[in-house]
Write a structure and sequence with these properties.
globular, 9 strands, Rossmann fold, 5-stranded parallel sheet, two-stranded antiparallel sheet, alpha/beta
């Protein structure tokens, strides 16, 4: 596993595009689109995100929108289901909602509570851990739905934003921390 994680970290380091002043002045956006577009990189990264949790999860949750790519790939590789955590107005049935703050505003996420059996163990996947607001809201939604958060796995962690502080007591893994 350490070799897979180091290969994954190298792909992330080499392929991530840094975009200054997006989505607003003063924000440096880390665009993982080139990482996802590279087939070998996507495979290695997907494996590295999921490996620590194999045998301990029943489903993988992807956070809108880039988390969908990771969650679908991991769920397929593991032969388990995928749960989607979406922005408001995208899910057609009963939803639970959770609002949170971003480093440049606020947002709300939703999940359909009857998607998985109560007690299901869920791994949350996302592209970037920044301030931790998105992942903290995702954790709250999963627990409110009656599921268990088995862990959180992200491709890139922006350590200067202290996102782990918003996720106390959680098993949080990142492939590359900058």
């Amino acid at each position: 596993m350490p070799e897979t994680r180091s290969r994954a970290a190298q792909y992330v380091h080499d392929l991530t595009a840094t975009v200054p002043d997006f989505p607003m002045p003063g924000i440096t956006f880390r665009d993982l689109t080139p990482v996802f577009a590279d087939g070998p990189a996507l495979r290695v990264i997907t494996d590295a995100l999921a490996e620590p949790f194999v045998g301990r999860i029943d489903a993988v949750a992807g956070v809108e929108a880039r988390g969908f790519v990771l969650a679908a790939a991991a769920a397929y590789a593991l032969g388990i289901g995928v749960l989607i955590i979406r922005k408001p107005g995208k899910l057609p049935r009963e939803v639970l909602s959770e609002s949170y703050d971003l480093e440049y505003g606020s947002a709300t996420l939703q999940v359909q509570p009857n998607t998985l059996p109560v007690g299901s163990r869920v791994l949350i996947l996302d592209d970037v851990l920044a301030t931790g607001g998105t992942l903290a809201a995702s954790i709250k939604l999963i627990e409110r739905a009656g599921w268990t958060v088995a862990g959180v796995s992200v491709v890139l962690e922006l350590t200067d934003l202290n996102g782990r502080e918003a996720l106390p007591g959680r098993d949080v893994r990142s492939l590359l921390a900058v």
